[in-house]
């Protein structure tokens, strides 16, 4: 018996649209819908899965973001590939979707310690030079991929030092552990994405050549009072990670 393909990490298996996406993903992979064929209409999928049109559209959007289908008004949804590319795809249109993606990947703790921020790091963290921070270095992986998709450094304020035990036991998204242990609540997330060259120390961990192209993602997590909870810096080798954002134009902007 052939098992259905693993659910991509950009989809939470607990949501309704994820179950619809998983079923369609399995049928596409098994050849029930060949490349070039059209999927059932939204109305047909609503009836089959007993879900709303919003749920069906969310499922189709994820399949489209994974490169499996194209969807055009008046034409329908057409299969363009039978297999998901061997890379992570993040379609982020909200903080909730970003956090869902990070929670559905695996983290491997590589190193940890306490450091005093030098001048350059202090600028990135938004603190004073010499301030103490906890630092965790991790590798992020997907279930279906052999190599990690990226290396992440996470810095946390020293008053949250007890979080180290939680990270060692279960290297999960640190912000989730902070919320659980200390009762803090994420109020704002700022993100900066830029091209970079892979640092030599991370290249060895990720099994790529030093100074090869990479995606650099810097994130600042703030509580509801505007205080920094954590800062993370990720480096992702070219070809292992795709970041997508979907934006709609409001009527007043036309």
Brief summary:
The protein has eight helices and ten strands.
Succession of helices and strands: HHHEEEHEHEEHHEHEEE
Largest sheet: 6 strands, antiparallel
Largest beta sheet: strand ordering: 4-5-6-9-8-7
Instruction: Determine the mean pLDDT.
Output: 82
Shape type: elongated
**Which percent range fits the helix content?**
25-40%
Give me the oligomer status: single chain
- How many domains? The number is 2
Q: Which structural class should the secondary elements be placed in?
A: alpha+beta
Name the CATH superfamily assignment of the largest domain.
Answer: Chorismate lyase-like
First-last Cα distance? 53 Å
What's the CATH architecture of the largest domain?
A: 3-Layer(aba) Sandwich
CATH-defined fold name of the largest domain: Chorismate lyase
Poorly predicted regions are 1-13
What would you report as the Rg, rounded to the nearest angstrom?
20 Å
CATH class of the largest domain: Alpha Beta
How many β-strand runs?
10
Strand content: 25-35%
Number of helices: 8
Walk me through what this model shows.
The chain has helices at 16-29, 42-49, 53-65, 95-103, 119-125, 163-169, 174-182, 200-206, and strands spanning 69-72, 76-79, 88-91, 106-116, 132-141, 150-156, 186-197, 213-223, 228-237, 241-244. With 254 residues, it is α+β, with helices and mostly antiparallel strands. It has 2 domains: 16-79, Winged helix-like DNA-binding domain superfamily/Winged helix DNA-binding domain (Arc Repressor Mutant, subunit A, Orthogonal Bundle), CATH 1.10.10; 88-244, Chorismate lyase (3-Layer(aba) Sandwich). The strands form 3 sheets. The protein has a 6-stranded antiparallel beta sheet with strand order 4-5-6-9-8-7. It has a two-stranded antiparallel ribbon with strand order 1-2. Strand 1 (69-72) and strand 2 form a beta hairpin. Helix 1 crosses helix 3. The longest helix has 14 residues, at 16-29. It starts with 15 loop residues before the first helix and ends in a 10-residue tail after the last strand. The model is unreliable at 1-13 (pLDDT under 50).
């Amino acid at each position: 018996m052939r098992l259905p393909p693993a659910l991509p990490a950009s989809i939470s298996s607990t949501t309704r649209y994820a179950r619809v996406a998983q079923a369609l993903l399995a049928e596409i992979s098994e050849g029930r819908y060949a490349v070039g064929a059209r999927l059932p209409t939204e109305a047909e999928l609503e009836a089959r899965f007993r879900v709303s049109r919003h749920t069906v559209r969310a499922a189709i959007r994820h399949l489209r973001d994974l490169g499996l289908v194209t969807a055009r008004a008046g034409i329908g949804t057409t299969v363009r590939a039978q297999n998901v590319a061997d890379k992570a795809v993040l379609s982020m249109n909200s903080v909730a979707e970003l956090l869902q993606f990070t929670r559905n990947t695996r983290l491997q703790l590589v190193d940890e310690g306490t450091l005093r921020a030098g001048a350059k790091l202090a600028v990135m963290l938004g603190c004073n030079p010499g301030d103490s921070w906890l630092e965790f270095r991790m590798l992020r992986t997907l279930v279906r991929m052999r190599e990690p998709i990226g290396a992440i450094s996470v810095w946390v304020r020293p008053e949250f030092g007890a979080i180290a035990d939680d990270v060692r036991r279960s290297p999960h998204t640190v912000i989730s552990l902070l919320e659980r242990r200390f009762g803090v609540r994420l109020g704002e997330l700022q993100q900066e994405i830029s091209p970079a060259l892979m640092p030599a120390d991370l290249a060895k961990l990720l099994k790529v050549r030093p100074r090869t192209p990479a995606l650099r993602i810097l994130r600042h997590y703030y509580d509801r009072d505007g205080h920094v909870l954590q800062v993370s810096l990720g480096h992702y080798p070219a070809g292992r990670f795709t970041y997508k954002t979907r934006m709609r134009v409001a009527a007043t902007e036309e």
